[in-house]
Amino acid sequence: MKIPKKLIVIAFLLYLVLFGCSKLNRENYDKIKVGMDYQEVVSIIGDPDKCDAIMGSKNCVWGNENKNITINFIGDKVFVPSMNGL
Length: 86
Hints:
- This protein is α+β, with helices and mostly antiparallel strands.
- It has one domain: Beta-lactamase Inhibitory Protein, Chain:B, domain 1, CATH 3.30.1450.10.
- Helices cover 33% and strands 31% of the residues.
- The chain has helices spanning 5-20, 26-29, 38-45, and strands spanning 50-54, 57-63, 68-74, 77-84.
- The chain has a 4-stranded antiparallel beta sheet, covered by helices on one side.
């Protein structure tokens, strides 16, 4: 049984949309700089999966425990960015 080329192309494009377009990658992490605003970070990697705030600082995580970007903000400015598994 021969699979039509059109079906292969559609399957490949679907794969790219679902798995290849993640904003959680090393290239985007490298764009994040100390002093950058929270909204600038969100424009690069999207909304965080989790944030905890206490006394003017906020710690946000994008991703999961295996692959993530974690950023500590002070006064809504990047203070300490880190990454894991990218």
